[in-house]
Amino acid sequence: MSNVALICGVDEAGRGPLAGPVSAAAVILDDSNPIEGLADSKKLSEKQRDKLAPIICERALAWAVAYAEVEEIDQLNILQATILAMKRAVLALNIQPQQVLVDGLYCPQTGIPSIAIVKGDSKVAAISAASILAKTARDALMLDLHQQYPNYGFADHKGYPTAAHLAALREHGVSAVHRKSFRPVRELLPQGYEAFNKALL
User: Fold this and answer.
1) Could you give the strand order of the β-sheet that contains 62-68, starting from the edge strand earlier in sequence?
2) What are the CA-CA distances from residue 95 to residues 91, 106, 139 (Å)?
3) Domain extents in the chain
4) Which one of 15, 17, 66, 190 has the fewest beta carbons within 10 angstroms of its own beta carbon?
5) Average pLDDT of the chain?
6) Burial 7-32 (b: 16+ CB within 10 A, else e)
7) Distance separating alpha carbons of residues 140 and 159, to the nearest angstrom
8) Can you name the residues that pair with 13 across neighbouring β-strands?
């Protein structure tokens, strides 16, 4: 990998939540302008992520954030929707990388040589940067959704299945931004799973 000039790191955020889109980011770092403190976004505090995100955007050679929406998650499944968001992020870069390094087990089909790296967000700086951008962008989007759907507490849990979120779902029902293919949401639909499956046909 050392002889590859333009390496793009890719990571996602938001596979586990019951609501909101899944996000992905692609980042090409500038080796001549390094960024201190890059790490897996899950190992950083919210304050650390929020501090690093604008530095990444300023110093990277190129970066992009993309999403797969709730409807796409329900139609495709969360894994395929995540790969789609990753593909969109890579293709949205204003510089084409020569190699794509992806956190996890699967690579999006972009026509660019790609390698999946398990725990890549802890091993590759560009993937760490992508994990931070994907997480901060999605968190900001969930704050916007909190303004539209204040009953669910998205500002606190970002759509993840906390006890408070599950209680709000039971009390207020399923919103337009909930993932109906996820069991805790699906079970609250009027006719449960059958109704959801028929809606897809």
Assistant:
1) 62-68, 22-28, 7-13, 99-103, 114-117
2) 9, 22, 26
3) 7-137, 148-200
4) 190
5) 93
6) bbbbbbbbeebbbbbbbbbbbbbeee
7) 12
8) 23
pTM above 0.90, yes or no: yes
Whole-angstrom Cα distance, residue 157 to residue 168? 12
Q: Which two tokens stand for residue 90?
A: 């890579």
Q: Return phi, psi of residue 32, to 5°.
A: -85, -5
What number does CATH give the domain 7-137?
Answer: 3.30.420.10
Yes or no: say if 129 and 9 are a contact pair by the CB < 8 Å rule: yes
Residue 17, amino acid: P
How far apart CA 38 and CA 164 sit, in angstroms, is 32
Question: Which residues on neighbouring strands pair with residue 7, listed in sequence order?
Answer: 99
The amino acid at residue 168 is A
DSSP sequence for the chain? -TT-S-EEEEEEE-SS-SBS-EEEEEEE--TTS--TT---GGGS-HHHHHHHHHHHHHHSSEEEEEEE-HHHHHHH-HHHHHHHHHHHHHHT-SS--SEEEEESS-----SS-EEEETTGGGT-HHHHHHHHHHHHHHHHHHHHHHHH-GGG-HHHHTT---HHHHHHHHHH---TTB-TTSHHHHTTSTTHHHHHHHHH-
Residue range 160-195, pLDDT digits in tens: 999 999 999 999 999 999 999 999 999 999 765 555
Residue 133 CB coordination number (10 Å): 30
